[in-house]
Amino acid sequence: MKIKIITLFFLYLxxxxxxxxxxxMFMEGHDLNIQMIPIGGNSxxxxxxxxxxxxxxxxxxxxxxxRTYFKLAQKGTLKLSLFLNTKGGKSxxxxxxxxxxxxxxxxxxxxxxxxxxxxxxxxxxYISVDITGISKTSSIFGIISxxxxxxxxxxxxxxxxxxxxxxxxYWGRRGPxxxxxxxxxxxxxxEWFYNEITVPKNNDVxxxxxxxxxxxxxxxxxxxxxxxxxxxxFSVWSPFTTDNPKTIPEDQKILLLKKGADVYTGEFxxxxxxxxxxxxxxxxANNTYKFLLQGKPTADNYxxxxxxxxxxxxxxxRLIASFKRPKTSTYLKNLYSFLENFIPxxxxxxxxxxxxxxxxxxxxVGWTELxxxxxxxxxxxxxxxxxxxxxxxxxxxxxxxxxGFFNDNTLLNQKFTRKLKAKSPMxxxxxxx
Length: 433
Prior knowledge:
The protein has helices at residues 2-18, 39-42, 168-174, 379-382, and strands at residues 35-38, 43-46, 50-52, 55-57, 65-72, 76-85, 90-97, 100-107, 112-121, 125-136, 143-150, 178-182, 192-198, 208-214, 218-224, 230-237, 255-259, 263-268, 274-280, 288-297, 302-311, 316-326, 336-341, 351-362, 366-370, 372-377, 389-394, 397-402, 415-417. The chain has 433 residues and is mainly β. 42% of the residues are buried.
């Protein structure tokens, strides 16, 4: 009987290890339900240091904080260890969770596991682990590759970026992207799509793309590109599938027909390829901006897409660009908006935007208001690597929210309805630039 119990115990350990290939053996101090949390996909630094695919590197400053996030599905005990290589030096560190701190003394060559301690977590949700340096004998405190966690608070529903397969350290640190899919069924031959965006104060975080007018072949919205630059961006994908615009055949390239004053035009790649245009414009939080897109097929198997932007600061419609897409004959379809972060270093900062007053137009029935959406998200959210996303209807407007490790996320694939405005846009198409 004793032999059978021991055998079952070792079989259980093997099964646990197979769930995470990084676990070669049972770790001292931990419970059996150990999970490994890679620094490279789940951490950010404050005051120096750098997060790479290998973990925390270039860690020389006592003021540096390495902060790692994961979401607990239940309360309970949390045991934690870290995997550290001090490069032959001797380092003393602080590890803090929810105000409780343990000291760790690390030394020697090669990567070693250092058991830190145990915390009692009183409620489920996101928590952060802060690691700082106290003293060191070499030029760096060390390189941290992973945290290991176990205890009664750790379950199979623990949420974090599991590994770098599919480059998910990059995508995970960018954070989840969320979308509003507009219900336009029953409206045929949509030639114009109108939308409005308002970004609340302090939500215009660097790296944000508040995309207003998405369609089957492209997207149009506004970005925060740096501390000193913001853009109104309009792009159309080529029908030729590639991430390298240089490989697009001549007969499948996006053709520029016209562009507005001060608008840059060129090509883009890496997420499909095609024609790109943008206007550098210092849009402001709390102001409402209007977006108008036209999509109309031509007789020669092309479709022309034209984007216009209206800023309250100027009180006029501005042409962004007009592109001609080959091998395409369609009006506007698959209308949507999205919110994404495209800078991994700001994926720990929350941002939110309101999307309101959506209308479509065709020549037969005129304007039709769109007031129903379905909330969807990208694979970072669907894999449950990041659960800090939300969207739906709020105060009579649609909204999207992501990043920042908040807990009140929204169930995906829900439908939401806002109250009808019943006041169509006043636009004279013949007077657009």
